[in-house]
Design brief:
This protein is mainly beta and about 280 residues long. It has 3 helices and 20 strands. The chain has a 7-stranded mixed barrel.
C-alpha cells in the first residue's frame, strides 16, 4: 500500500535526496544527492529501506509533514526536537506516525541538515536514475513548499535488527583533508602555505553548491584566466576574491577559476553539517 505525505511546513529548504545522479557529468549534470550520505543511509537502515532510498533533507529549520496513512519514520543527521501530534518523540530512532498526525521536525540544535526517512521511501518519479532535487540544474522535484504532496512507497517488509545508531556529532572544527592540484601552480608559495596553515571559517553564503569560506585571500602566481575545465566533487576552487570554495553535490561540472586542491570525499559529510562560523582547516593528507 502506498501513501501520501502533505507538507504542513516546508521550512527554510527541504528537498528530496537519494544517492544522486552518477555518471552524467559529461552532460553537464552534477551528482546531487544527500550532502550527508552516511546520515541518509543510517536512517534508511533503521527502517529496513534500501540504503539509498529517497529521503527528505531539511536545512536548519526542519519541516512538518502529515501522512495519510500510518508510517514509520526516522529523523537523523543534525540533532533537532521531533514531535508527533505535539508530543515529543525520539530523534535518531524509528517512530510511528499515525494517519493524519503531524510529524514536526524542529530547528536544529547543532549542525545544519536533518534527514527524514520514511519506511518505503519517498516515491517521486526518478529523473536520470535519481529522485534527487538538483538546485543548480533544476532536475528532480522542486524544493518543498507548504501544501505540497509527496508519494510514499510501500514499506519493504524487511525485518529490522535493532542497532545502537552511531550518529556523528556535527563538527566543532571542520578539518578537510586535501590533495593539492590540479592548478596549485597558479598560486604563490606563500599562498600554498597559507592554504594549509591559516584558519578559515564557514561563510553564511554556503549552500548545496559549495561551502564558501572566510579568511586569508590566496594570492595567484599566474595572471590571466583559465579556459573552462571539468570540476569534480570536493574541488577547492579559488575565485577572484581569493577565498577557497569547496564544491559540494550540486556543483557545476565545469569552471574557469583555478582549483588549488581536492577534498577527499569521505570528509564532505562533515562539511554538510558545519554551520556558518565553524572554523575550517585544510590539511594535506
Amino acid at each position: 500500500m502506498t501513501g501520501k505525505l502533505t507538507t504542513v511546513r516546508a521550512g527554510a529548504l527541504t528537498t528530496v535526496q537519494d544517492a544522486g545522479r552518477r555518471g552524467h557529468a559529461h552532460l553537464g549534470v552534477p551528482r546531487s544527492g544527500a550532502l550527508d550520505a552516511p546520515a541518509m543511509r543510517l536512517a534508511n537502515r533503521l527502517l529496513g529501506n534500501d540504503p539509498d532510498a529517497a529521503v527528505l533533507e531539511t536545512t536548519l529549520t526542519g519541516c512538518a509533514l502529515r501522512p495519510d496513512r500510518a508510517v514509520t519514520v526516522v529523523v537523523g543527521g543534525a540533532p533537532c526536537p521531533v514531535t508527533v501530534a505535539g508530543r515529543p518523540v525520539a530523534w535518531g530512532a524509528p517512530v510511528r506516525v499515525p494517519a493524519g498526525a503531524v510529524l514536526d521536525v524542529g530547528p536544529v540544535t547543532a549542525g545544519v541538515r536533518s534527514y527524514v526517512a520514511l519506511a518505503g521511501g519517498v516515491a517521486v518519479e526518478p529523473v536520470l536514475g535519481s529522485r534527487s532535487t538538483d538546485l543548480l540544474s533544476g532536475l528532480g522535484p522542486a524544493p518543498l513548499r507548504d501544501g505540497d504532496v509527496l508519494p510514499v512507497a510501500a514499506p519493504t517488509g524487511r525485518a529490522v535488527t535493532p542497532v545502537a545508531a552511531p550518529w556523528p556529532a556535527p563538527p566543532a572544527e571542520l578539518v578537510l583533508p586535501v590533495r593539492l592540484g590540479p592548478r596549485a601552480d597558479w598560486f604563490t608559495p606563500a599562498a600554498l602555505r597559507a592554504f594549509t596553515s591559516a584558519a578559515y571559517r564557514v561563510s553564511p553564503h554556503s549552500n548545496r553548491i559549495g561551502l564558501r569560506t572566510e579568511g586569508p585571500a590566496l594570492e595567484r602566481a599566474a595572471a590571466g584566466e583559465l579556459p573552462s575545465e571539468g570540476m569534480v566533487l570536493g574541488a577547492v576552487q579559488v575565485p577572484p576574491d581569493g577565498r577557497p570554495v569547496v564544491f559540494l553535490h550540486d556543483h557545476p561540472t565545469t569552471g574557469g577559476y583555478p582549483v588549488i586542491a581536492v577534498v577527499t570525499e569521505p570528509a564532505l559529510a562533515a562539511a554538510a553539517q558545519a554551520p556558518a562560523g565553524t572554523p575550517v582547516r585544510f590539511v594535506l593528507g
